[in-house]
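Standup notes
- HV: blocked on the assembly model, inputs below
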Amino acid sequence: MKPTVILRRTSVRTLLATGLVTSLTLVSGCAKSEDDSDKAKNSTSQGDSGQVVASPSAGSGPTCTIDAYGGKKIDLKSATVGFSQSEKEANPFRIAETASIKAEAQKRGVKLLTSNAQSQFSKQISDVQDLIAKGADLLVIAPLNSDGWEPVLRSASAKHIPIVTIDRKINATACKDYVSFIGSDFVEQGKRAADRMIEATGGKGEIAILLGAAGNNVTTERTKGFEDRVKEKAPGLKIVFKQTGEFAREKGQSVTENLIQSKPGITGIYAENDEMGLGAVNALKGAGKKPGTVKIVTIDGTRNAVQGIVDGWINGVIESNPRFGPLAFQTLDSFTQGDKVAQDIVIKDSAYTTDNAKSDIGKAY
Amino acid sequence: MTDLTLGRATADRDRLLRLLQEYGVYLGVVVLLLLNTVFTPHFLSAENFRTQAVQVAPVLIVALGMALAIGSEGVDLSVGSVMALSTSLLSLYLGYGAWIAVLAAVAGGIVVGVANGALIAFVGVQPIVATLALMVAGRGLALVLLPQLKDVRNPGMAELGSGDVLGVPYLVLIAVALALLVGFVVRRTTFGRQLLALGDSRPAARLAGLPVRRVLIVVYVCSGVLAAIAGVLATARLTASDPTSLGTLMELSAITAVVVGGTPLSGGRVRIGGTVAGAVLIQLLTTTLIKHDLPPSWTQIAQAVVIVLAVYAARERGKR
């Protein structure tokens, strides 16, 4: 009797397993989403090169050379580069960032090791240590946090591995713990958003801010830049509402719905990222407003937001360029050849307005 | 003589306390409504109530399922992930038309519900652990199926999200219908009685010959289906599928609504009316703070205070 019982049990298990596997393949195999042609369109129209440096790479500002950093010159072509991404590639910014690094590595024929910390800082630390253990000669890191990098920096400096951080800074000494930081100036982005808002509203009226996630340097700096510039240039523009939309479209929508009911006279909304801005557009549509009655300015430069300008709902999008690949590899290249590189490389972000949205939508990510 | 008056005073206080526990959540809603009418400009408008009702609908629907799970002396932590899974499936199958896509999304909810129920009823895993496993797995699966936000352009879905009948949005109608349905099931059907009996005492229910396993599985399937419906409605409202952020912390909002509504976590009792009021209370609280432009951290603190008050009331009830 016993053998049959065991047999039956194993057969049940196999049945369950095969059932699970087939159902999974069925789920993804039979799927038919709304438009599969989207992919083809994206890949063909993404015609944009990398970033342009705003602050000069040598001359002004502190620089770093390989002699000052320690280590020896290597040829980038024969080197292995490790890239550690911080967040899941689930939003356009991260997708474009990783894709840009990968594309540039391929173009230059450099061996690239990648890892993704899935928004967990402890994972990112062990990711980078793994990359070092796997033999990375150079590191490109998109840090999740600014603090807590000591263990990684110790093991990297023991092996004299040059580190370039992109999009966020780490709190450490440049040219000692890492080589340079390449990124946007978030305060400057806020200021430029304020300029767009002043232009769109004429510098008068009441405006609202949809803040990003609390306790994030991107949020605080984009808020600071915006508020400072408004105070300085357009005292007639009053900021009457500041609530967090947590960088998500849904939250941006529900907060804006409440905003336009309690303050129907609002003239402008500054959203600290595109997603919240698109949520605000949804809310305005739902309330039966016409495009352009409430001016919206956002930051990031995703395709959907630039399309929003074309449709007349959004008045300006300040770009936060995610394509770090070319600049990161160029920096590593000149550094490993022994040239001087800047410690802080601030990239130039472009902007989309009603004038260039239609022609430049191909550049959006 | 003094003893007698003292006794009556405590009796009165007890009765008052009990009434407060029983109807406190409704009182809270009324107080917030009155406060807002006086202090919030433009509060008394049809448009505003419409917005509040639409915003509360998904939370409310999830909370209904949660109330059933909690009534069976369990909890369902996977509801937020089911919403994400539902929005992924919806977007994936929208090419076949809205109805098929909605059915696929609901089927996803059923599958997760069956998995939850089977783990709890047959394997004997504690509900909090079983649904925690599905919470992690569900979100992961949702992201595998649809790694990032995708716009939904189906006109049927857009109509569902923003259309209305005689000024009442579809979302609100669906939420009300589901609340009535769940209320009816809990009060008037055999299944409802069995659910409450096994929530009170599972051994007793088993000894009484109730189909404990079947009831448990049905409870978690209901919770999964309701969460999937909430996911569909939230997607329709947003006109985009966003499995990365849709439904995050939804399980906590739902548990809050249920607990604030006076359903004890120890099971054996389900208050659907209270759950509805609990969801509305939290919504009004958040709205009030947003409308007065108070810092977001205040909202969290205010919610915490409400939860502590509700749990305090639940404790008193348990002691009785």
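- HV (later): unblocked. Chain A has two domains: 48-183+322-346, 186-319. Chain A has a mean pLDDT of 82.
- Next: hand off to the docking folks.
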